[in-house]
């Protein structure tokens, strides 16, 4: 645990995550990325457009230069869709490096994964606690997702709504709140599976998405 603590402190001092201002809907703030994790090579351009309403965070993921559209059609909600192609967001309320955050994923088949993650070391240290708390009744909880594949234009996108109540934000009070978020995309083909290429808005310094000092700073304006 001492080693994990020291690693966390070093990451906090080293990382310089990006910032984004997000307006109320229908205006949008846009996070975009086109570099791999962690080596910063070329990656297919990816965008996440965000806004907030009275009761939700709304996101539009767009994956460009897509050639694979690769997923397992047998998978359902909260199964291991991250092993194939997905777009993801990690979200925590507040401006500190979070220990607990929402992980949301969607794949080209419009299958979703949503769970709260407890990552007390903030870096998913080996041998340390790392817990997943699934949200299974998504419609009842207020999640929505709609995914469109445009194969002749090599893109796919998902429009997603995540309820603000999950973060104890009362209806109509999101303006002025500060958040930590990150956005990710995985790329893999049938002939390269399970070896994925990873991309991120705020790239961690190794091939792991669960390193919270690298989460970007987001403010709802």
From TrEMBL:
SUPFAM superfamilies, per database record: CBD9-like
Lineage, broadest ranks: Eukaryota, Fungi, Dikarya, Ascomycota, Pezizomycotina
CDD domains (UniProt xref): CBM9_like_3 (cd09620)
Protein name: Carbohydrate-binding domain-containing protein
Domain of life: Eukaryota
């Amino acid at each position: 645990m001492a080693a994990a603590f020291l690693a966390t402190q070093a990451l906090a001092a080293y990382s310089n995550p990006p910032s984004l201002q997000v307006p109320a809907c229908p205006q949008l703030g846009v996070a975009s990325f086109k570099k791999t994790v962690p080596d910063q090579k070329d990656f297919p351009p990816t965008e996440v457009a965000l806004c907030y309403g009275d009761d939700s965070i709304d996101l539009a993921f767009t994956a460009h230069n897509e050639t694979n559209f690769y997923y397992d059609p047998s998978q359902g909600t909260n199964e291991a869709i991250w092993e194939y192609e997905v777009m993801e967001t990690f979200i925590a309320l507040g401006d500190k490096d979070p220990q607990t955050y929402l992980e949301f994923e969607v794949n080209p088949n419009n299958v979703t994964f949503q769970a709260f993650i407890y990552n007390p070391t903030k870096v998913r240290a080996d041998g340390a606690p790392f817990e997943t708390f699934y949200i299974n009744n998504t419609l009842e909880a207020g999640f929505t997702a709609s995914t469109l594949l445009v194969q002749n234009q090599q893109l796919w996108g998902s429009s997603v709504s995540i309820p603000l109540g999950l973060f104890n934000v009362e209806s109509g009070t999101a303006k002025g709140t500060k958040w930590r978020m990150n956005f990710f995309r995985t790329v893999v083909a049938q002939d390269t599976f399970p070896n994925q290429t990873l991309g991120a808005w705020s790239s961690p310094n190794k091939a792991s998405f669960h390193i919270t000092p690298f989460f970007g700073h987001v403010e709802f304006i």
